[in-house]
Design the sequence.
């Protein structure tokens, strides 16, 4: 285990509570063995699909809902970077775990803020912090408040004519970020056929494509985040459009020459750390998945040197639109 996980375990054991009936692990796949030593019922949830590599599938919750938390006396959590994600996790725990549940959440001190304590305090009567150790700290919470559910969130965008649904981990929440808006300004120029929204987030691109290309395209979407997958499904349902959504890492689940169009507003970070490697790997794989002459539409931060990578990996690339912050490109697959 990592120092962060070791500290969480020490802080939980120091609570000196009875053997729990169920422990729920949130974004802590490395603590399965430690949890299994303390209970016969372990439930694992990771928002990022990649974090589940090596975890026994029988332990993984199919959905993050009441069923996952029912009977839980302990919830061990890695603090998410997003306060919204923390709020959703805390709300689910408070509303559905046992009344004597103990929540312990660990994080790196440099990534923690007092606002995290405030979020937990909105759901629990007791919140405290451990001493720091090895650049990590643990927040502890118990005495849950049961309240009306507020997640997922929903927002109407009158200018686009869509309602967007988002869970806590989703980038931009129910908002439409400026890069996506730049892409949506050119929606009518995007080709038809088998169209895929990669990194679908709250689903706004997939929903708008499904609406605009109704009867002309089969629209699918995917994301490595389970919250994004759920949000896109719920956004599609809210707007009464058909989108086939899958939880997947990049394009690995797609067959060779199976798409006519890929549309993406990819992240350049993994968690908090900046990381372009997953997006660059996707560029490499796009040439496999796209049919010859297919299109890859990509919007990204203008400071990133991705046009050259697209030219090299996929095919001829031109800038469709650009402003000081964002660049939109169209690449034709060789």
Sequence:
């Amino acid at each position: 285990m990592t120092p962060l996980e070791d500290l969480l375990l020490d802080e939980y054991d120091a609570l000196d509570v009875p053997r729990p009936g169920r422990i729920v692990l949130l974004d802590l796949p490395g603590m399965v063995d430690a949890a299994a030593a303390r209970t016969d019922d372990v439930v694992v949830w990771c928002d990022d699909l990649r974090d589940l590599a090596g975890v026994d599938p029988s332990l993984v919750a199919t959905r993050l809902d009441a069923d996952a938390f029912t009977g839980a006396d302990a919830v061990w959590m890695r603090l998410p970077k997003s306060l919204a994600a923390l709020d959703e996790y805390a709300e689910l725990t408070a509303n559905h775990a046992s009344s004597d549940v103990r929540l312990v959440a660990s994080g790196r001190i440099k990534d923690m803020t007092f606002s995290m304590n405030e979020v937990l305090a909105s759901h629990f009567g007791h919140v405290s912090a451990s001493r720091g150790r090895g650049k990590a700290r643990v927040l502890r919470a118990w005495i849950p408040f049961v309240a009306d559910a507020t997640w997922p969130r929903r927002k109407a965008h009158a200018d686009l004519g869509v309602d967007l649904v988002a869970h806590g981990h989703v980038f931009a929440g129910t908002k439409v970020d400026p890069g996506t808006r730049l892409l949506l300004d050119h929606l009518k120029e995007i080709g038809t056929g088998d169209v895929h929204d990669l990194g679908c987030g709250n689903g706004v691109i997939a929903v708008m494509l499904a609406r605009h290309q109704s009867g002309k395209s089969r629209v699918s979407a995917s994301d490595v985040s389970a919250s994004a997958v759920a949000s896109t499904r719920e956004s599609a349902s809210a707007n009464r459009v058909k989108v086939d959504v899958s939880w997947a890492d990049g394009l690995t689940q797609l067959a060779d020459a199976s798409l006519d169009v890929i549309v993406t507003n990819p992240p350049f970070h993994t968690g908090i750390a900046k990381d372009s490697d997953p997006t660059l790997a996707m560029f490499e794989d796009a040439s496999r998945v796209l049919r010859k002459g297919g299109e890859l539409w990509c919007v990204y931060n203008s400071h990133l040197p991705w046009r050259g990578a697209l030219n090299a990996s996929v095919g001829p690339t031109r800038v469709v639109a650009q402003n000081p912050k964002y660049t939109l490109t169209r690449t034709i697959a060789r």
Q: What stands out?
A: Confidence is low (pLDDT under 50) at residues 269-273. The chain has ten helices and 17 strands. The two ends are 45 Å apart (CA to CA). The first helix runs from residue 3 to 14.
